[in-house]
Design goal:
The chain is built from 11 helices and 15 strands. It is of the alpha/beta class and 340 residues long. The chain has 2 domains: 170 residues, Quinone Oxidoreductase, Chain A, domain 1 (Alpha-Beta Complex), CATH 3.90.180.10; 136 residues, Rossmann fold, CATH 3.40.50.720. Strands 3, 4, 5, 6, 7, 14 and 15 form a 7-stranded mixed beta sheet that branches. It has a 6-stranded parallel beta sheet with strand order 10-9-8-11-12-13, with helices on both faces. Strands 1-2 form a two-stranded antiparallel sheet. α4 packs across α5. The two termini are 13 Å apart. It binds NADP nicotinamide-adenine-dinucleotide phosphate.
Length: 340
């Protein structure tokens, strides 16, 4: 089978290789992949910024979707032909996170090879069913970006109808956060660097927008949109460069879900966090139980992931360069298998 391997870091050094199709163990299923999606983390993994000591050669990318091509003798949950996606953290089924669960995430080292390959064997406990209305390409967007947004908005945020949610930028996590917040009945405010993308946010149903390039103090603009109170929830993907303003834009007693580190920045002043009794919650993807709840909600609402662009398997380097350019809106997908 064809796989991609990281041996030397750098997008240009990503190489296509041949490996044996794995045989599933007794309690494993063999997944034939049809699609994978790109996360910012994958770019960091390939460039060596995620873990410079990562064991190599490693197959990158955490998020894939496919069908079960074979099952081990002891498998009871699945049949050949079932459409599934492996979960991001292969040993996180329920409850809180732990070192062991966190370390079982796909695509960041040789021990837990990723999904940029034609076939992969996974424990029958570590895959979930794809909602019927989703294609493989759409389903491949769920394991990391969607689950993280779900964890932030629904699991940690417990977002209620009529509450307000702020999202930053228009990457994979943020667009899912917009969709889940709308699904929960919230009013959503979103920032972006681009007026074209702001147009797309409005089409998606966002209630108020701020261009953070044109309006450097976008936190004040969000306060203006919320009668000076601030939002109930902020889905914080920017990190050091945006956290201070995210806290400013959040109401007293509000919730900031800390997810990402897209930007660097100056020293952080913690005073507003305690003066405003902000709940600052770190979020790391989520468990299989959260994933299954999310897919039930996606199925019930016929929610469609927003895919910006799909690339063929031989175009993975272009897909990563495209992500690096930041021009995408929502998710970037790679097709795997026949014809790609
Ligand atoms: N904790 C977790 O479990 C977890 C899971 C998934 C992702 N993450 C992290 O979350 C972050 C986002 O991931 P992703 O996959 O959604 O990334 P992505 O798709 O690459 O998102 C990139 C977008 O972020 C926006 N952005 C960049 N700088 C910004 C700024 N200063 N202010 C506001 N928006 C900005 C831009 O949107 P515009 O062009 O519209 O401005 C850009 O297009 C990354 O740091 C990633 O590592 C963490």
């Amino acid at each position: 089978m064809k796989v991609y391997e990281v041996e030397e870091f750098g997008i240009g050094n990503l190489r296509m290789a041949e490996r044996e199709v794995p045989s599933p163990g007794a309690d494993e299923v063999l997944v034939r992949f049809h699609a994978a999606s790109v996360n910012y983390r994958d770019l960091m993994v390939v460039e060596g910024a995620y873990n410079p000591r990562m064991k190599r050669p490693a197959i990158p990318f955490s998020d894939g979707a496919g069908e079960i091509a074979a099952i081990g003798d002891a498998v009871t949950k699945w049949h050949v032909g079932d459409r599934v996606t492996p979960i991001f953290a292969q040993r996180w089924f329920d409850g809180g996170s732990s070192e062991e669960k966190r370390r079982s995430s796909l695509g960041a080292g040789a021990q837990w090879d990723g999904v940029l390959r034609e076939y992969g064997s996974f424990s029958e406990e570590s895959v979930v069913q794809i909602p019927e209305h989703l294609s493989f390409e759409e389903a491949a967007t769920l394991p990391c970006a969607a689950l993280t947004a779900w964890h932030a908005v629904v699991e940690s945020g417990l977002t209620r109808p009529g509450e307000t949610v702020l999202t930053l930028g228009t990457g994979g996590v943020s667009i899912f956060a917009v969709q889940f917040a709308k699904m929960a009945g919230a009013r959503v405010f979103a920032t972006s660097s681009s007026s074209e993308k702001i147009g797309k946010l409005i089409e998606l149903g966002v209630d108020g927008t701020v261009n953070y390039r044109e309006t450097a103090d976008w936190d004040k603009a969000i306060l203006d949109l919320t009668e000076k109170k601030g939002v109930d929830h902020t889905v914080e993907v920017g990190g050091a460069g945006t956290l201070q303003r995210s806290v400013n834009a959040t109401r007293i007693g509000g919730h900031v879900a800390m997810i990402g580190a897209l930007t660097g920045g100056d020293a952080f002043n913690p005073t507003p966090v305690f003066m405003k009794s902000i709940r600052l919650q770190g979020i790391f993807t989520g468990s299989r139980r959260m994933f299954e709840e999310m897919t039930r909600a996606i199925a019930a609402n016929k929610l469609k992931p927003v895919i910006d662009r799909s690339f063929e398997f031989h175009q993975v380097k272009e897909a990563l360069e495209y992500m690096k350019s930041g021009s995408h809106f929502g998710k970037i997908v790679v097709r795997i298998g026949e014809g790609s």
